[in-house]
Every structure is written in C-alpha cells, then in structure tokens.
Specification:
548 residues, alpha/beta, Glutamyl-tRNA Synthetase, domain 3, Glutamyl-tRNA Synthetase, domain 2, three-stranded antiparallel β-sheet, 24 helices, 11% strand
Amino acid sequence: MDNKKLAEFLFPHIKTTARQYREEIYPKRELPEGAMVTRFAPSPTGFLHIGGVFTSLVNERCAHKSGGVLMLRIEDTDKKREQENGIDAILTGLENFGIHFDEGVTAQGEHGAYGPYTQSQRAEIYQAFCKELVEKGLAYPCFCTEEELADIRKRQEADKAMPGYHGQYARCRDLTFEQIEENIKAGKSYVMRLRSPGKPGGRIKYKDAIKGQIEMDENIADVVLLKSDGIPTYHFAHAVDDSLMGTTHVIRGDEWVSSVNIHLQLFQALGLKPPKYAHVAPVMKEEDGSKRKLSKRKDPEAAVSYFTEEGYPKESVLEYLMTLANSTYEDWRRANKEMDMNEYPFRLDKMGQSGALFDLKKLHSVSAEVISRFDAKRVADDIIGWAEKYDKELYDCLSSDGDYAEGIFSIDRGGKKPRKDIAKWSDARGYCSYFFDSLFVREESLEFDAETQKAALEKYLEVYDPNDDRDAWFDRMKSICPSLGFASEVKEFKAAEPGTYKGHVGDISSMVRVAVTGRKNTPDLCSVMALMGEDRCRARIKEYIKNL
C-alpha cells in the first residue's frame, strides 16, 4: 500500500507536519543540567482528589528543587464524562493549596510557550503525528463496530487467547486502500489504531524513579490513537504532549504502571525520546486493621474541598503531605523548626513504594503545630476569611472589631511553648466563643460546693483590679486564700496534712476562670480578662454567683 497516499487521504486538512512541530514550533528547552520538567495533568471528570494534590506537590518539588519547570496541563479529551465547572474546580483546589505552576492553564487563561495546555485545543497536533505514523505504516483506520468488537472478545474467550485488538483478531489491520476509501465514502465511523510492532512473548524493562527496575510484557495490542471524533486517547496524547512540551519526568499515580509498555512503544514508533517515569503509590486509609485506597464515595477527606470547608491552612496540608512523601521529612523538620518547607532536599527515590497512610489525627497534630507558628494577625485574618463563608455568626463577631479579634489570638502565641488549641479554622468558634456575649455558653463547672465558690468569687471581686499586670493579678489571687481556707502556694498545700486546706490558689484561679469563660482550660487568664474588660468580667462573675 502507498502509505503516503493513505495518510493524505485520511488527513487532507493537516498541512503542518509532525517534524515542524518537533523542530520549529516546540523547540528544545534551554535549561540547566539536571533541571526537571514535570507536569500535573488532571482530567475534569470529577472533583480534585487529595491524591491529586499529593502528586502535584511531588511534581512541584521535583521541578523547583532542580531549577526546572512545572506545568499544569488539562486532559479534557473525555467530553462525555467531563463535569460542569470541572476545570475551575481543579484550578481553585490547586490554588487553595499553594501549588504554583510556571506554565499551563490558569484562571486567567494559558501561560507559557509550549501550549495550548488544554488537550481539546490540540487536535490538529495529534492528527499531524498520527498522519506521520500512517506514512510510516505504523497506523491505520479501524471501522469495527461495538458489536464486532464484542464478537472478537467472545472469540478470544473461546480460543483462550489474550484479550485485545491484535494479530489475527485485528480485522482492519490489512485493509486495502480501496476498502478504506470505500468505507469512508460510505460514511462509516472509524478510529485510528497503532500497528503495534510488539511480538507475543516479548518483554521490556525500564527503571522507575520510585519503584526501581520493572519488567513487563511487551505491548502487542493495536491500541486506539485517535477516537472517531479525531480526539486522542490518553496514551497517544501523553506521548505527543510530553515530548513536545519537553517533559523530562512523568510523575503520576501507579495505576498507570501497567500502561508503560504502551507508552514506551508509542515513543519508539514516533521516533521520540521517552521521559523518565515515576509512579506514585496511592494515598491509603486504615480501616478494620487493613489498608485501602481513599474512596471518593466513602471518605469525605478524599476531596480537597473537605480541607477548605474544615479550614485547614494550605501550609498545614502541604506540610502533612510532605511527611507522606519522604520518610526523612519529619526528622528534618524537628531539626529545622523555623525553616521553610521548600528548603527540604526532596528526593523521588525516598518515596515509599507502598501506599502512604492518610491519618486525619496526624494531620490535626501537624496543623496545630503549623498554626502555632503563625502570628496573631494572620490567624485572625484567615479565620475571618473562612468564617465569612462557613460561619456567618462567628464572622459577624470577629469582623466587627479587628483589633479585638487579633487580641484574642495573640494570647499565649509565640514563645518556646505556644498553645496549640487550633488545628483548623473550624476550631475557632470553640476556641474563642466566650469572648463574645452572643456566642458565650457555659460548658464546664467545678466540683467545689456552691457556698465555697460563692465566697471565693465574692472575695475576689473585692480585690479585682483590671489594671494589674500578671504578677500583681496573681498576688491578689493569693491574698484572698487564707481567709477562705485555701493555701496561697501549691507546694504549701501539698506539704500540709490532709484536711488542712480546702484547696490552693490554683483552685481559686479555676473558679474565676470558669465564672468568666465557662471553661476549665483557657489561655492565660490574666490576659483573657484584660482583653475582655472589667465590665464584662464582673458581669460574668456576678451572673455565675447568682446561678450557683
């Protein structure tokens, strides 16, 4: 068959050649030695999974630690499954978690010299490369209907043959030009297939940057390159795009390991240098003593929207994901508490080969540590921003007085042992509600009898001075202890015979704390009362006495 004639017949509208795309339109990148070009390439067929953020973070670290380039490519060739606003949801999710791309699709449009970065806009590029494969005798049109393909599968089952479109089961592989011409003129739908050069029993080897040496069967199937609408399959688009865009490392989920034989064969057929592959194990969850993949259906934390709605700062999520990505990260963080996460020497070969376990309790702990290092203004601003969307009542309280809000979150912040009460912004209401009369609810009480508490609180009101500093404030607390039958010092109480004292100064402080805040545990009480003001504190104590 005259392959050039067939190529021209199938693609008469394609005037730019694959060679022109390779050599002129997409020139080789000029980058430093060792620089990695990576890409995150999601499909807008569902919500952005936390596993997607994990994979994008690994791509980002590899690119930027090596002085390379990170791209965002949208693989939107599956129009039937594409979700409405799916691309916007991906962009928003990635932006919320601080994954910054050097090139690719953005909310404002596309940026970079190697676009379009949206696959549905690259149809003619794929067709040019398919045309070249036809010219080489490595691609052909297939007119098999769904019924005919089902019949082939039945025959293979009966023959106990390997499933797939290959060998004697590839009905359209050896059609003549005249038969092809007749079918197309008759309006028959067709796809373009690779004429696989693979041989039954053949084996291939490749080195995965995470999983190490992998050996697998050579691909013998005539896989689909272009669907009937002229849009490529993932396999073909991947080979064309990653070659033209200069991708050096394809870092993706390990569900694609089984397809590497197809991909390497496509690069070979196209005469292109393949990238290096690194397959990331899925994010897992422990359930009933065993591990399973995080499920979009079962696990709310599978969707990145969960972390936004709960109010986890992006720094917390990324910090936690880094502990999953490299086993040495936690030791590095303990030794470098104040250092930026990006200073960590991330390495692909330090990634685990089995699925990392996603633990919400561990995330909670990591996030509380991260937030404890934020300044009060950052905390207040972020909580107000979160509450505006998710807790209107809290938003109204905090936004009405920015200085008061900042003051709330400044108490016990900083120093060597900062408080870690807040692990996500949705914790804020529980943390600060007692600072606002409209949100205040008494949550706890003390075991001391009503008369003892009443006497102690009335005595405290006599000596309470809102102008006292912390030392003077506590000295006044101590001064009322003897007349109430309490020890002024804790060590004095512990050293005394049982029954000598009703309690100690810490118990008096607890009575005041519960009366003012409704809690047994709060940040520094002197600072809390100073911020709340004398009128509110006296009113709270009097109201508590009245209700004893």
